[in-house]
Amino acid sequence: AIRTRASGTATALAEAEAIVRERAATVEHGWREVAGWEAKLEACRERRTILGEIVSRHEGMGEAARRILADGGDAAGIVGVLGESVEAPLEWAGLVDVALGPAAQDIVVSTREAFASWFDAWAATDDAARVLAAGGRVGIVPTDSAPSVRTDDDEGPARDDTVVGRLDALIVAAGCPSPSGPAARFLERVWVVESFADARRLAPLHPQATFVARDGRSCHGERMEVGSASATTGLVARRAELKALGERHDELARRVAGHAEAVAADQAALTAARNTVRQLQGRRQQEAEELAEARSDAIRLRRERDAATEALAAAEAALHAADRRCGEA
Q: Which of 76, 152, 268, 311 is close enough to 118 for a disulfide, judged by CB 3.0 to 4.6 Å?
């Protein structure tokens, strides 16, 4: 019975050790995955921090524009930067920057009068004069400007098969808020087309509209702009990327937490499996000792049996000898 139990324990121990090896490999693989996701999370966090600083500093805008934004505030009726008033998905953000062009860096104010009153006093200072002399020109656009006049031709491009859609409608269809204020007036006549050839063909037919190809080249009437949307450092594209990085950061953080939780569960299972191995090893040791003790008892009993057999044989021999002597007498 002891030998049978010992054999069963040895089999169970071998199976438990195999489970330990398997779970140890799973834990090691899990920690490697966690490290990989943590590296991606750190890279995303670093990129988001850098881009956030770029956006907050209004990099790419002239020094004069940045100073007006910093010094004007409510006194100047400053609402913000035109390009920063548009929220667009990454797919369309670069094309929005193309469509807005230099106007993306215009400063939006509540009224012309409020800004002009503040600006006249500010520009008279020596510091402002130096900034304006070195910082370039600044576009100012009020929120109370007159709405654009709609014409019968405004929706004409939609009938062309090569037109993807009107840019402001594409932004809304992607789940972003509808552009408002001055930005809306820029985008309501911008149409996205498949190719630059389509833009060149349609622009003369609809001179009030701007046609932007997917690659960023555009046409407005007889005027063409060439280049790549990805080559721009537009305000809209930056903010779109920053938002996407925030979403990506949150997703990676969830992945890291999920993988770490899974690894912790695997680690707990590994610890339990190792405890099982130790218990089985202890049982095997105990059964080995019991088997050794049983063998020792068997040897002792065998010796005692042999000694008893020899004593019995000697007694029987003595008895036979006694019987012979009695017979002879």
A: 76
For the beta carbon of residue 38, count every other beta carbon within 10 angstroms: 16
Given a contact cutoff of 8 angstroms between Cβ atoms, the answer to whether 143 and 184 are in contact is: no
In angstroms, the CA 76 to CA 70 distance is 11
pTM value is 0.72
Which residues, 6 or more positions from 241, have their beta carbon under 8 angstroms from its beta carbon? 51, 90, 93
d(CA 276, CA 13): 8
Sheet harboring 107-109: ordered strands across?
Answer: 78-81, 107-109, 140-142
Backbone angles phi, psi at 285, to 5 degrees: -65, -40
Give 86's contacts (C-beta < 8 A, 6+ positions apart): 96, 100, 171, 179, 183, 187, 236
pLDDT digits (tens, 9 = 90+) for 259-301: 999 999 999 999 999 999 999 888 888 878 878 888 888 888 8
**Residues 6 or more apart in contact with residue 140 via CB below 8 angstroms:** 106, 107, 109, 112, 115
Pairing mode, strands 210-213 and 218-220: antiparallel
The two tokens of residue 131 are 């900034």
249 near 48, Cβ under 8 Å? yes
